[in-house]
């Protein structure tokens, strides 16, 4: 089983921009949600695409299964979505052996910026940079699946 262990935060300011080493453009949409899992389709820079199944559970750990699919299939699947297509630029900021993923949203959520860090275990220690704001891990309103369900 795939496992994702992740913490999510808002940002206090934009000092992270000077630490970015890479960025990619993401478009994603949700195909199905049943309260126990979500099915997502995502394109990256228009050149790669993935179909992802994630469990919906309280806490910071979730089952996650991800499969690469043809970009053309992903674009067709996005037409079958529930709600909005989420558009964002993901900036990568190194953090020792880990990396922060800073998602800068555009479209309907222009102005929203979140930071996520994937951890090797639930109790793994990680540095909290000064630009990090309030933790929103576990707050459904900040999940991409919830954002996609809000029309406009």
Report on this model:
This protein has 152 residues and is mainly β. The protein has a single domain, classed as Hypothetical Protein Pfu-838710-001 (Beta Barrel). 9% of the residues lie in helices and 51% in strands. It is built from two helices and nine strands, in the order βββββαββββα. It has an eight-stranded antiparallel beta barrel with strand order 1-5-4-3-2-6-7-8. Strand 7 and strand 8 (113-118) form a beta hairpin. It is globular, with a radius of gyration of 15 Å.
Helix content: under 10%
**Poorly predicted sequence stretches spanning 5 or more consecutive residues:** none
- Note the run of SSEs as H and E: EEEEEHEEEEH
The total strand number stands at 9
Q: Which second-level CATH architecture applies? A: Beta Barrel
Strand content: over 45%
Shape: globular
- The CATH homologous superfamily is called Hypothetical Protein Pfu-838710-001
Q: Classify the secondary structure makeup into a structural class.
A: mainly beta
Q: For the largest beta sheet, what order do the strands appear in spatially?
A: 1-5-4-3-2-6-7-8
How much is the average pLDDT?
A: 94
CATH topology: Hypothetical Protein Pfu-838710-001
Gyration radius (Cα, Å) is: 15 Å
Determine the number of helices (DSSP H or I, runs of at least 4 residues): 2
Distance between the termini: 35 Å
Major beta sheet, specifics?
A: 8 strands, antiparallel, barrel
For the record, the CATH class is Mainly Beta
Task: Estimate nothing, just give the exact number of structural domains.
Answer: 1
